[in-house]
């Protein structure tokens, strides 16, 4: 069934130009867009297309829905509240001043696939939605200075799949690339975020959410697009990569404020500038960093840089992880454990060539007092110092062995020094 669009004028046989609310789909069925739409709303709030019925498949047929003016608060497609079994696919939404696709509260079984969103303020807003799938979609050059508009905004929703998503050249000065508040049972897989920027901490943020699984997520060539969990439970980050970003003094991955039972696995923070830290647990418990790496990260400003950070919290574990070739204009540490950390274990890790401004500011491991800290089977060397104590600072019973200065790396030009092994 082709869409019947009222009060429209066909121009150039290619596109429809509309001046007001264009279309409401109020009956179940399969709908296909027959031409591109250029909307010229007179005032907002407004929507270009409203879906007001359940059991709808809306296929854009590779056509474009476009807002042709700058009137504020215009959505591309609005799905009304409490509807179900709706599919939106195969097209582009461009230039809308609010959200490309807004899903009303109480909606369920919503599928958005093979959609391209370009130069919109927001991409998708889902509030209290159940069984939402967004797959094979691209969001390019979206931007907003409104703190309430995010590229992907998931609020109070559950059973969510975000798969094969590309977000590129986004700019959110007061909001976020992905904002998830009180969501559960969510999988984010094969998401790529490139050349995008945020100013706020937590460009990717989970707030009071649980059972969220991030897998194969890459953030590259971005500015300030940090990952932040606040008050979360039972979430997993696996194969999450931060590559060649500029963090502007933020931590790349932070799990904080009473978050519990979260796992960061096989993830990397590499080649990132202005980095305050790679992975941090703060005031959280029963969390694990496993098989992660922080490599070749730098700071341009006089700020301390700690790669793996256990700041407070209880019963956290770091194991089989690496921090190497990182540098700071002040203090650089491979791992940092704050004095208020308790019942914490760091096992089978390697920390080398973490370089601060001076040898005294360079640490493989920097442990403050803490309580019940287990530090076992770790190695540290060449952390920009000949002072053996700084390889493992604060580790009780540490032993230092100075190895030969040549032929360790094959050429002898950058020998290992002060290999530290705790007794």
Explain what this protein looks like in three dimensions.
By secondary structure, this protein is an all-beta fold. It folds into two domains: 1-198; 226-423. Helices cover 0% and strands 53% of the residues. The chain has no helices and 44 strands. The strands form four sheets. The chain has a 24-stranded mixed sheet that branches. Strands 3-6-9-11-13-17-20-23-25-27-30-33-36-39-42 form a 15-stranded parallel sheet, with no helix packed on it. A hairpin with a 3-residue loop joins strand 1 (9-11) and strand 2. It is elongated, with a radius of gyration of 25 Å. The protein starts with 8 loop residues before the first strand and ends with a strand.
Low-pLDDT sequence parts: 1-15, 398-416
Q: Indicate the mean pLDDT.
A: 85
Approximate strand percentage: over 45%
Helix content: under 10%
Number of domains: 2
Total helical elements? 0
Q: Main sheet?
A: 24 strands, mixed
Radius of gyration from CA coordinates: 25 Å
Secondary-structure-derived class: mainly beta
Distance between the terminal alpha carbons, to the nearest Å? 76 Å
Shape field = elongated
- Tally of DSSP β-strands: 44
Tell me the layout of helices and strands.
Layout: E1 9-11, E2 15-18, E3 23-25, E4 29-32, E5 36-39, E6 46-51, E7 56-59, E8 64-67, E9 74-79, E10 84-94, E11 99-103, E12 108-118, E13 122-127, E14 130-135, E15 138-140, E16 143-144, E17 152-155, E18 158-168, E19 171-172, E20 178-181, E21 184-194, E22 197-198, E23 204-207, E24 210-220, E25 227-230, E26 236-243, E27 251-256, E28 263-265, E29 268-270, E30 277-282, E31 288-290, E32 293-295, E33 305-311, E34 317-319, E35 322-327, E36 332-337, E37 342-347, E38 350-355, E39 362-367, E40 371-376, E41 379-381, E42 392-393, E43 398-401, E44 419-422
Parallel strand pairs: 2-5, 3-6, 4-7, 5-8, 6-9, 7-10, 8-10, 9-11, 10-12, 11-13, 12-14, 12-15, 13-17, 14-18, 15-18, 16-19, 17-20, 18-21, 19-22, 20-23, 21-24, 23-25, 24-26, 25-27, 26-28, 26-29, 27-30, 28-31, 29-32, 30-33, 31-34, 32-35, 33-36, 34-37, 35-38, 36-39, 37-40, 38-41, 39-42
Antiparallel strand pairs: 1-2, 43-44
């Amino acid at each position: 069934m082709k869409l019947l669009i009222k009060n429209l004028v066909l121009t150039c046989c290619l596109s429809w130009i509309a001046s007001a609310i264009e279309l409401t789909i109020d009956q179940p069925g399969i709908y296909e867009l027959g031409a591109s739409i250029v909307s010229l709303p007179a005032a907002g709030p407004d929507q270009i297309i409203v879906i007001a019925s359940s059991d709808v498949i809306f296929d854009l047929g590779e056509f474009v829905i476009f807002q042709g003016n700058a009137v504020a608060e215009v959505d591309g497609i609005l799905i009304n509240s409490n509807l179900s079994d709706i599919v939106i696919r195969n097209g582009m939404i461009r230039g809308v001043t609010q959200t490309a696709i807004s899903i009303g509260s109480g909606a369920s079984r919503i599928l958005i696939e093979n959609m391209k969103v370009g130069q919109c303020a927001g991409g998708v807003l889902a509030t209290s939605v159940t069984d939402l799938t967004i797959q094979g979609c691209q969001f390019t050059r979206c931007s907003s200075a409104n703190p309430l508009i995010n590229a992907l905004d998931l609020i109070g929703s559950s059973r969510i799949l975000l798969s094969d998503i590309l977000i590129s050249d986004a700019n959110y000065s007061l909001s976020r690339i992905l904002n998830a508040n009180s969501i559960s049972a969510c999988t984010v897989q094969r998401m790529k975020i490139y050349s995008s920027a945020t100013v706020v901490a937590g460009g990717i943020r989970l707030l009071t959410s649980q059972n969220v699984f991030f897998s194969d997520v890459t953030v590259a060539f971005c500015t300030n697009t940090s990952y932040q969990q606040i008050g979360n439970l039972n979430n997993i980050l696996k194969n999450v990569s931060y590559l060649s970003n500029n963090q502007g003094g933020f931590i790349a991955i932070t799990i904080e404020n009473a978050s519990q039972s979260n796992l960061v696995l096989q993830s990397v923070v590499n080649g990132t500038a202005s980095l305050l830290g790679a992975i941090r647990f703060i005031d959280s418990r029963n969390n694990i960093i496993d098989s992660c790496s922080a490599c070749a990260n730098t700071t341009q400003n006089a700020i301390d840089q700690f790669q793996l950070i256990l700041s407070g919290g209880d019963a956290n574990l770091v194991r089989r992880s690496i921090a190497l070739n990182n540098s700071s204009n002040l203090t650089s540490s491979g791992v940092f454990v704050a004095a208020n950390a308790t019942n914490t274990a760091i096992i089978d890790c390697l920390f080398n060539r973490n370089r601060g401004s001076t040898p005294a500011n360079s640490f493989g491991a920097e442990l403050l007092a803490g309580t019940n800290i287990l530090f076992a089977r770790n190695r540290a060397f060449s952390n920009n110092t000949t002072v053996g104590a700084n390889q493992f600072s604060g580790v009780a019973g540490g032993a230092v062995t100075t190895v030969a200065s040549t032929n360790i790396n094959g050429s002898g030009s950058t020998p290992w020094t002060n290999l530290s092994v705790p007794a």
